[in-house]
Amino acid sequence: MNPVDPKAVLVTGGAGYIGSHTVKALALAGYDVCVFDNLLAGHREAVERIARAVPARSITLVEGDILDRARVVQALRESRAQAVLHFAALLSVGESVAEPAKYYETNVIGGLTVLSAMAEAGVSRFVFSSTAATFGEPLVTPIDESHPQLPVNPYGETKLVIERALRSLDAATGLRHIVFRYFNAAGADPEGHLGEDHTPEIHLIPRAILAALTGEPLQIFGDDYATPDGMCIRDFVHVTDLAAAHVAGLQRLEAGRPSASYNLGMGAGVSVRDVVSAVERVTGRPVPHTVAARRAGDPSRLVATSSCARTELGWTPRYGDLDTIVSTALAWHQAHPQGYGSPE
Ligand SMILES: NC(=O)c1ccc[n+]([C@@H]2O[C@H](COP(=O)([O-])OP(=O)(O)OC[C@H]3O[C@@H](n4cnc5c(N)ncnc54)[C@H](O)[C@@H]3O)[C@@H](O)[C@H]2O)c1
CA torsion angle for 308, 17, 155, 165 (degrees, to 10)? Predict the structure, then answer.
């Protein structure tokens, strides 16, 4: 424990999409942040932009792999972190079905390596990025925290393994943790510093925006679901609202409150067709699209209830309206046609 700076944290995966928005929120809330990322999908430029946007805080990047235990221990010690927010993971459902070993290695062995490094460095607060995919095919909608967790793909399974390990470690060692199960993260930093830059892009809203901007058709998977318009229904939550939940979750742990798990979504079911309409409305352009067969393991409807996060964390999403989500994402893509490779 460092008495000089009680507000230093380490963020694995902090150069990635949700991680970087959270690093910015943490910096604005007064934390010094050490980002630990192997830059597989993350961007050095994202970390540099946060450092420029919040010059009062120390924002550093350690380029390293979470499987490298000694390097994680060293980063924890050198940064004097008192908590870890763990975003680093692989997250494509389809890829996890095709290459499950990779997912178990990064998400399970990598997650356990971070936890073991924390034990060695004497860090006992942990905030974990979990996912709606741990629930599998919903038995009831909306999904609350007591819904059975029966994942239907290796990605969801690997996240559930860590959730379970956290419960056991809490009981055995007092590791206090917050699990956040995000539904569909979307949107971009409303101040325009950060946004979504994945290669290939797998998420619906940026893909629909790119289709509108480039004319390259969006591929939609399935229009024969048992939903009002036949398309999958998802729950989109703004990435800046997710970031705010992480700050609140960390503060809950700092206040000495017990471990907890929270679903994070807006509770609004939005179909793929609704997203296409919103992107057409906001961009003023058509979204060319084709319809392909359903993908295995895609539940028809994933909608959260986040009342626990609202009541226990005081979480109040500010950007959850679908047109706001799309507008912030569009502003990012228009200002950064080469993603983080574009000039600021
Ligand atoms: N994007 C979503 O809608 C969504 C939904 C639910 C859960 N999640 C979870 O949120 C977290 C962040 O997702 P994201 O969308 O920001 O993804 P992302 O790919 O943008 O970020 C992940 C980051 O982790 C880093 N990373 C990957 N493997 C690593 C390793 N072995 N060592 C060090 N760093 C490594 C990548 O370089 C990247 O910067 C993930 O844990 C994901 O499972 C995301």
Answer: -60
